[in-house]
TrEMBL record:
One of its GO terms (molecular function) is RNA 7-methylguanosine cap binding. The keyword RNA-binding applies. PANTHER family: EUKARYOTIC TRANSLATION INITIATION FACTOR 4E RELATED, EUKARYOTIC TRANSLATION INITIATION FACTOR 4E TYPE 3. The lineage of its organism: Eukaryota, Metazoa, Spiralia, Lophotrochozoa, Mollusca. The keyword Transport does not apply. SUPFAM superfamilies: eIF4e-like. Keywords: Initiation factor, Protein biosynthesis, RNA-binding, Translation regulation. GO terms for biological process: regulation of translation. Transmembrane segments: none annotated. This is Eukaryotic translation initiation factor 4E type 3-A,Eukaryotic translation initiation factor 4E type 3,Eukaryotic translation initiation factor 4E type 3-B. Pfam families: IF4E (PF01652).
Amino acid sequence: MPVGSPNLPRSTLSEIHSQEECGIPLNTRWTFWLDKSIPGTTVAEYEATMRKLYTVSTVQGFWSVYNNIPDVDKLNVRYTYHLMREERRPVWEDEFNSAIGEQFSDCLAEGDEISATVIDKVKELLPDVHFPAIFYKAFQTHSAFEGDKHKSSWKG
């Protein structure tokens, strides 16, 4: 049965917390997010659907969260998980978003989050995966991008 916005039980949260206290530290903390994407919404409406599930700082904490959230095929339609560095929110306008492992650092371009060379990099990293459709779209051209309008509300 599909679930909407899953909650981690208290016993699981306690287990994750224990793993975080004694686990192997990550270089940076990573946050699991859940959102419900609805076409045509504003950034504010989209952010209202976002929920932080847990921020991890150890390898064991990561796997504890990962193994205790419902599989993506168990989520209702339009719900999506995101894994973001520190507590950055998964929005187009966050200029500091990056990919885990830093494999895309050589794909950075001036004024864009990552350049079109990311497609080649993904194919290089995943040579055995067939992508039936693949494209790159600069975030400034995405229909949900609100640019400076959103940035000004964050810097206040």
